[in-house]
């Protein structure tokens, strides 16, 4: 699977050129998106996730023409925004089960198997009965990933997922993400250059809405 972004541009109503002719080829694996605040990272990710419109350009995920086939894309998308809503008084297990019902997984046995597999994969099985209120930042982010994985995504977008996490939690989170990256296009936006160097097979740096550098992280970061 490959995500191909071609000449994507977006100017907001206030005149800010958030994206200017962005072109990127993103294969299965972990892709690191680096750039300072205001560079256009969130705009790019929200556009790929079909949450906002571009002015021009195209995005393809395999056969899916993302900007035109929004429903098709949404069926294979996992998206973990920077801030996502949580239900503090409910448990991880209850919520995942609930979201699985909403996804239309009506068979109870099938649903239990799926929820258990996701809890194990994201290292939350032990705390599955706890209310999210008591979760640490890292646990919450891993819960977000479990939720995003419910749709068995081919494309997973995560926006600064480790902001505010301590190093142990960050490692735990990245272990989960790396495993997903073996079969999925994962776009990871972060400020932490070393994380991209360690985790990602490809990267791009954007600034002022433009791609300034793209390629192999080890090579790019060592040359920096
Ligand atoms: P980030 O942490 O990604 O830099 P921002 O603080 O830029 O996030 O944006 C947070 C939210 O505010 C986003 O939903 C974004 O669309 C919106 N936003 C950012 N800048 C503006 C702006 N100049 N005018 C209106 N909305 C904005
Ligand atoms: P990043 O995620 O890299 O911080 P954003 O995509 O949030 O960057 O923002 C890129 C630029 O677009 C910034 O100058 C921001 O203020 C502006 N911007 C973001 N969202 C909006 C919006 N809804 N309306 C107007 N300007 C926005």
Task: List strands and helices in order, with pairings.
Elements: E1 2-11, E2 17-27, E3 29-34, H1 41-48, E4 56-61, E5 64-65, H2 70-75, E6 77-80, H3 92-102, H4 108-121, H5 137-149, E7 155-159, H6 167-181, E8 185-189, H7 193-199, E9 202-207, E10 210-215, H8 217-223
Bound molecules: adenosine-5'-diphosphate (2 copies).
Keywords:
binds adenosine-5'-diphosphate, 10 strands, globular, alpha/beta, six-stranded mixed β-sheet, four-stranded antiparallel β-sheet, 27% strand, 224 residues
Short description:
This protein has 224 residues and is of the alpha/beta class.
Overview of the molecule:
It is built from eight helices and ten strands. The chain has helices spanning 41-48, 70-75, 92-102, 108-121, 137-149, 167-181, 193-199, 217-223, and strands at residues 2-11, 17-27, 29-34, 56-61, 64-65, 77-80, 155-159, 185-189, 202-207, 210-215. Strands 6-7-8-3-9-10 form a six-stranded mixed sheet, sandwiched between helices. The chain has a four-stranded antiparallel sheet with strand order 2-1-4-5. Strand 1 and strand 2 form a beta hairpin. The model has no long low-confidence stretch (mean pLDDT 94). Residues 14, 37, 42 line the site of one adenosine-5'-diphosphate (ADP).
Q: How would you spell out the order of helices and strands?
A: EEEHEEHEHHHEHEHEEH
Q: Compounds present? A: adenosine-5'-diphosphate
Radius of gyration: 18 Å
In spatial order, strands of the major sheet run 6-7-8-3-9-10
Strand content: 25-35%
Mean pLDDT level: 94
Structural class: alpha/beta
Point out poorly predicted stretches. Answer: none
How does the overall form come out from the CA principal axes? Answer: globular
| Oligomer type | single chain
Find the count of extended strands (DSSP E, 2+ residues): 10
Terminal CA distance reads: 30 Å
Outline the biggest β-sheet: 6 strands, mixed
Count of helix runs: 8
Q: Helical proportion?
A: 25-40%
């Amino acid at each position: 699977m490959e995500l191909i972004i071609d000449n994507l541009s977006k100017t907001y109503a206030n005149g800010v050129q958030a994206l200017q002719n962005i072109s990127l080829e993103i294969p299965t694996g972990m892709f690191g998106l680096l750039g300072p605040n205001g560079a256009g990272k969130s705009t790019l990710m929200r556009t790929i996730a079909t949450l906002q419109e571009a002015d021009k350009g195209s995005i393809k995920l395999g056969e899916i023409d993302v900007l035109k086939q929004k429903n098709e894309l949404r069926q294979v998308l996992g998206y973990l925004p920077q801030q996502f809503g949580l239900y503090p008084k409910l448990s991880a297990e209850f919520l995942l089960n609930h979201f699985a019902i909403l996804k239309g997984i009506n068979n109870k046995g099938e649903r239990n198997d799926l929820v258990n597999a996701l809890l194990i994969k994201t290292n939350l099985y032990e705390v599955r009965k706890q209310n999210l209120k008591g979760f640490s930042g890292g646990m919450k982010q891993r819960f977000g990933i479990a939720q995003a994985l419910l749709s068995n995504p081919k494309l997973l977008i995560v926006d600064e997922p480790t902001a505010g996490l301590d190093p142990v939690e960050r490692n735990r989170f990245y272990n989960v993400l790396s495993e997903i990256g073996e079969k999925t296009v994962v776009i990871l936006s972060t400020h932490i250059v070393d994380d991209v160097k360690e985790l990602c097979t490809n990267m791009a740096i954007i600034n002022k809405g433009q791609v300034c550098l793209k390629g192999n992280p080890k090579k790019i970061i060592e040359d920096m």
